[in-house]
Amino acid sequence: MEISTSISLQKLPLLPKQTQIKDPKAWNTIIRRHAQLKNDQAILSSYTQMEALGVLPDNLVLPLILKACASLQAVERGKKIHSDIQNTHAIEDVRIRTALTDFYCKCGFLEEARRVFEETSDRDIVSWNAMICGYTGSSHFEEAILLSLQMQRENLKPNSVTMVCLLSACGELLELRLGQEIHCFCLRNGLFNSDPHVGTALIGFYSRFDMRVSRLVFDLMVLRNIVCWNAMISGYFNVGNASEALRLFVRMLIDGLKPNSITMLVVVQSCADSGSLKLGRQIHQLVIKFKFNYDLFIVNALLNMYGKNGNLESSCELFKTIPARDVALWNAMISAYLECGSHEEAFGLFDRMQSEGVREDKTTIAIMLSICAESASGLGYGKGLHAHVIKSGMERDVSLGNALLSMYADFKCVKSAKKVFDEMNGPNAVSWNTLILALARNGLRGQVWDLFGQMQEFRTEPNSYTIIAVLAAFKDETCLTIGRSIHGYVIKHGIDVNSPLCTALADMYMNCDDEATATHLFESCPDRDLISWNAMISSYIQNNRPHKALLLFHRMISEVEPNSVTIINVLSSCTHLANLPQGRCIHAYTTRREFALGFDVSIGNALLTMYARCGSMSSAEKVFRRLLRRDIISWNALIAGYGMHGRGEDALLAFSQMQEDGLRPTDVTFVSVLSACSHSGFIEKGWQLFYSMAQDYSIAPEVVHYACMVDLLGRGGHLDEAINFINSMPIEPDASVWRAMLSACRVYSEIKLARVVFEKLVELEPMGVGDYILLSNIYAGAGLWAEVRKLRIQLAEKGLRKPPGKSWIVIRSQVHCFTAGDRSHPQSNKIYTKLSCLTSSIMEIGYVPDQRWVLHDIGDEKKNQRLFSHSEKLAIAFGLLNTSGGNPILITKNLRVCGDCHTFSKWVSKFVGREIILRDASRFHHIVNGLCSCKDYWLHGWPEDGKFHVGSIKRSCSGLRFDGGERVVKPKSEEVLSKGWKSRRLFRYCLINTSIDDSEVQAATRKAFSYLNHAAKGDNATAGYLSTHIRLFHNQAI
User: Fold this and answer.
1) What share of the chain is helix, strand, coil (3-state, %, to 5)?
2) Are residues 720 and 812 in the same domain?
């Protein structure tokens, strides 16, 4: 019956027109019925017919017509009504004047509203509320509060409507004290218990300050409706506590309340934020049960929820079930692809959207630009979208301009970003901030400072995010003074030091080596949030304080719930320290907190990297196998792990399997696999991979890839080829390329070439202390002590200091650190006693201290003293004292491991029957029973085919001419240059690998020695090289 009545009443406006009935009562009844049905369009249509017939509405109906005008923003119609009744008795009716006030307020004409309000002589509480709520709705919050005070001076008592408006104004103004006074007024006058709207307003007000107070208000409410529950659930969601929002929703269902569409929308969004896919599926079932599955807002939220939880398949299935897809739904599906990193699929869906005739909007373009920014090859597509926007005539408002600006900034296209900025009409603070940040990230400090000044000249008020962008340009120890001046500017100009700005300032001070100020800012921040904790932990890690990062994490979990970013940062700390026990604890913590942390492939990738860099590739492989979804980062981490452990063949196999799984390698993948080839000496395979980058995968090699190839060629002994490769590079080689070449010169004691390479390095990085140290070590190894002293003088003049070598070992989650000659450890006496016993024992079975690794011009006895107190040896002795027999000993070194310590470790492992794992700055050395996984490649270089065997040693002497006896025929000078490095390499290898019992190898070694001895007459570098090896040569009696 109700439906049929409704239908008949909707047709009633036509009846009087057809019969020309002019009875005002009939028309007034029709309009009242339309008002009950909330059909504003029908109200205005009926009023138009009344005007045509000359029928006037009565004083009770006219406010309903004005209300419909306000709802439909029919400004001219409302003004005409006001004009028509201006000189009638109707204008004297307080209800009509109140309706006019409300109409003008809702249409944004506050001055007209205030004029009508002031002209009302007998204003009642409803009139005052209309004006107060009008000010609040138009964001004139101070005027609303002042008007309420004026109302009370006229002896009118506020009611619940007044209180709701005032609480909204106080919330927007963050006036906690005044809001509390209004709360007290509501309690004293019984408004809190009599009207649930007051309680709902109090919940919304307190949620801006402290959700715990909102919860107290909610729990004390006698009358609760669905709006109250929605306010509470939304409050938790808005402050980032999605888990509590979901718990409250469950309680609401238990209490028997039926959710509405708003409830379901917020709950689905909470599932997306909490990362709970299982609960999200259950909520989806409730959406269907309560028949909200055709509400496009909720469908969009479900698409987003599945996307954020990595379940792209469910997003696609849901998308297919919606017959009428508007542009918002397409945008939601594209966003789901973005969340899952499926960039190619997103591009395909965008093309399909256009082919189906759905016109994209600005939101679509903004989402697509975000996808471009995350895609390795997205710059070209992004430029295409930019051209499409221009060609289609789409209005380029500030939001779209900011999206374009952000895309170009992410690709470091500063010139294009500036052009977009210059073409924007009225750039806002976000525009200025984005461009400043782009300049800062590209190291353009001067331009950052200039743009910051221009921003103020254009009278765009800098905000806290402007300062954050500016601070990004000043993040090293040379910028402390500038950083302090920026901090002073913030204080002087009263810029709100909110949590993000406080975090950025603390980060700046930490990076500028002012830890005390950074810590003070962090501790004094009144509203430290999760981001603040994460940023502080990250700052400790970036500034080489991983131990403090771990301590801060343990303190954090007692105050704040960590998220996936926290876990990734803390795992990075464990990785820096090679703290495997602590890493396992974090893994267990993550497993226990699965509901809170949810599905996140990035955590799996971080665990994989941690295990690989903490020496446990078996655990890394287990994590990889158990990943529900493997992205390109997962494969890259596995390949890099195999590479640093010297498992080149496994790295190449993983590279092939990755492509079989349908993933294309990226530029990062090639860095990992080329590095793996370098660590394992796979020169030919390295060349194949390098050429395939451009030919097969359309990836232009970058400087880092060239550096990998130089390292591969140099360490493999192909020095001439490496130099030619550098000289033929299409891009300018940077310091990393030349440094790889200098490292190769160290392996083969190429003094002359090392000098040339070092000069290139000094041009690029004049303050690179590591380069001076590396050349000094090359000179020291060749016995050129005068050159060593010159370099040390240069270091002193430049104020540069060599970073101290440190080795550490983790025992029961405690890090024990040692430096050379260190006696600060509580067990120092036991350590040195153990070390002395070990050294004596292994010397008896064949260990000979290699004094070449003492890089000081001192006597043999003092050289041995220095060797026997190296940090690696101290850490090994400590590990043997404090660990059980079955476990490997994991030692970490901040620099490259000393060659003598490497040999020492091999002999110790053989003597005590323990596996020793050394992690240095470049790779892992797994030493078992006297053999190392690196096969001494890092120290001595590889033969051309990557394997040590007798045939390769014989081939190494090819081209050296001997007569019938053992006397060397004098070679030409160019032969000395071309063959000298090969003979040195062979000679060193044969000396160290004395276990090879082969008469031909020994004969070849004698030939190499004879050749070097002859070459030394005309080559000081060779002579120096030979003199440092002659004692070993005679000791081993080859």
Assistant:
1) 70, 5, 30
2) no
pLDDT at 2 over 70: no
Whether 907 maps to a domain, the answer reads yes
CATH of the domain at 744: 1.25.40.10
3-class DSSP state for residue 557? coil
Please indicate, yes or no, if residue 296 is contained in any of the structural domains: no
816 with 927, same domain: the answer is yes
Domain termination residue (choose one: 877, 897, 932): 932
Sheet containing 814-819: order of strands: 814-819, 806-811, 889-893, 916-919, 924-928, 931-932
The DSSP-derived string for 39-75 is -HHHHHHHHHHHHHHTPPP-TTTHHHHHHHHHHTT-H
- Cα(182)–Cα(357) distance, integer angstroms: 54
240 occurs within a structural domain: no
Query: What is the rounded average pLDDT of the residues 430-437?
Result: 93
Q: How far is CA 839 from CA 104, 551, 907, 994, in A?
A: 94, 37, 9, 20
Same domain, 924 and 832: yes
Determine the Cα–Cα distance for residues 101 and 91; give it in Å rounded to an integer: 12
For 70-98, b/e burial (b = at least 16 CB within 10 A) is beeebeebbbebbeebeeeebbebeebbb
Nearest to 681 by CA among 369, 320, 936: 936
**Spacing of C-alpha 580 from chain mean position:** 23
CA 863 remoteness from chain centre: 47
The answer to which of 430-439, 815-824, 951-960 has the lowest mean pLDDT is: 951-960
Q: Do 907 and 839 share a structural domain?
A: yes
Cα–Cα dist 72/525, whole Å = 47
Q: Hey, what's the torsion of the CAs at 722, 723, 728, 734, to 10 degrees? A: 90
* Residues 833, 771 within the same domain: no
- CA angle in degrees (0–180, nearest 5) for 401-407-413: 105
State the average pLDDT over residues 532-548: 91
Whole-angstrom distance, CA of residue 367 vs CA of residue 538: 29
| Residue 925, H or E segment | strand 924-928
Residue 322 in any domain: the answer is: no
d(CA 683, CA 680): 9
Listed residue (370, 374, 334, 338) closest to 351, CA to CA: 334
Cβ contact 693:916 at 8 Å: no
- d(C-alpha 608, C-alpha 622), whole Å: 9
Domain count, the chain: 2
* Helix locations, 125-260, DSSP H: 125-137, 141-153, 160-173, 176-188, 191-194, 196-206, 211-220, 226-238, 242-254
pTM of the predicted structure, to 2 decimals: 0.64
Question: Which SS3 state, helix, strand or coil, does residue 808 take?
Answer: strand
Judge whether 880 and 886 are in contact, CB under 8 Å: no
Distance separating alpha carbons of residues 389 and 383, to the nearest angstrom: 10
**CA–CA–CA angle 346, 348, 350 (5° rounding):** 70
Tokens of residue 602, six digits: 């990035």
| Residue in 974, 1028, 1027, 985 with CA at minimum distance from that of residue 1008 | 985
Amino acid (1-letter code) at residue 579? N
**Residue 857 structural domain:** 807-932
Distances (CA, A) of 680 to 452, 614, 651, 742: 50, 20, 10, 19
Q: What is the pLDDT of residue 274?
A: 81
Q: What are phi and psi of 977, to 5 degrees?
A: -70, -40
In this structure, the answer to whether residues 844 and 879 fall within a common structural domain is yes
Rg, C-alpha atoms of the chain: 38
CA distances 316 to 336, 346, 406, 911, Å, are 9, 12, 28, 61
Q: Determine the pLDDT at residue 818.
A: 93
The 3-state secondary structure of 702-718 reads CHHHHHHHHHHHHHCCC
pLDDT of residue 997: 45
Q: Is 816 found in the same domain as 795?
A: no
